[in-house]
Design a protein that fits this description.
Helix 1 packs across helix 6, helix 2 runs antiparallel to helix 3 and helix 3 packs across helix 5. The protein has one domain. The chain is mainly alpha-helical and 265 residues long. The chain has seven helices and no strands. It is 81% helix and 0% strand. This is Phospholipid ABC transporter permease protein MlaE. InterPro entries: Permease_MalE (IPR030802). It comes from Duganella phyllosphaerae. Keywords: Membrane, Transmembrane, Transmembrane helix.
Length: 265
């Protein structure tokens, strides 16, 4: 009767958990370090010299205007459909007076900021971070000029694009909601602005602004942080594939949950 030697399963699991925990802590520590570095570069006057201003303006226009057009059209179509659904459903249950409040809360407070951040991440920052990391030499340290002319414009573009898409789409949705509910008449404007003002009280407005700011920081910083540490020694290769996408959308989800708790609890 043969006896098979026992395998050290438990120590292997512990080692894997330890390596995973160390890698996770290093990822978030390096993201924090990169964020502080970008903030430092952003407040330096030399970052906004003539040559750097031209590069920054080029990135802002190239990566914001096409996204603004496409996202504006898509958000307008989706908003019209959702507004119509809410209005018809409210009328069928005799709750027409709550339709505007529901439309404003669902679209402008929740859906539009979330979809704007996801749109910019999938269309701009994640692909740009991947392309930029592949063009750099693995393990090469970034110089100060490269931080000013290459990293900072891409980070600033991601942040600015989320702000612009969310702001324009929220205004567009509010206009479409008014036209759908009241038509082309100016006489319902005082009642409409009163309801919208009641929804956007100071606390809700502050939470919305903070949510958009944190969304934009996550979208702008996380993909470029991996490019900055591309080929670092603690890992053979830092990729922008599934790991960066999961990390980014996990942060977005946490921000959204925190905003929901602030608005409704």
């Amino acid at each position: 009767m043969s006896v098979h030697p026992s395998h050290p399963i438990q120590p292997n699991i512990v080692r894997r958990l330890h390596r995973g925990a160390v890698a996770w802590i290093l990822d978030w520590w390096r993201l924090l370090n990169f964020s502080v570095l970008m903030l430092t570069v952003g407040v330096m006057p030399a970052t906004y010299r003539k040559d750097n201003r031209r590069i920054l303006a080029h990135h802002l226009v190239r990566d914001t205007v096409p996204n603004l057009v496409w996202f504006g059209v898509l958000s307008a179509l989706v908003s019209l459909v959702l507004i119509r659904i809410v209005v018809v459903t409210s009328q069928s249950y005799g709750l027409t007076r709550y339709a505007l409040d529901l439309v404003v809360r669902v679209l402008t407070l929740e859906l539009i900021p979330l979809t704007a951040a996801a749109f910019v991440a999938l269309r701009t920052t994640l692909p740009t971070g991947l392309e930029f990391s592949q063009s750099r030499k693995a393990g090469a340290a970034a110089t100060l000029d490269e931080l000013r002319s290459a990293f900072f414009p891409r980070v600033a573009t991601g942040i600015f694009a989320v702000w612009m898409l969310a702001a324009v789409s929220c205004v567009l949705t509010l206009v479409l909601a008014y036209l759908t509910l009241y038509g082309f008449t100016p006489y319902a404007l005082p009642g409409y602005t009163r309801v919208v003002g009641q929804v956007f009280n100071p606390a809700v407005a502050m939470i919305l602004a903070l949510k958009i700011i944190f969304f934009s920081l996550a979208v702008g910083l996380i993909p470029m942080a991996s490019s900055f540490y591309y080929g670092a020694s603690y890992r053979a290769k830092v990729t922008h594939g599934l790991s960066d996408m999961v990390r980014l959308f996990a942060v977005i989800l946490l921000i959204e949950v925190a905003s929901l708790m602030g608005n409704y609890y």
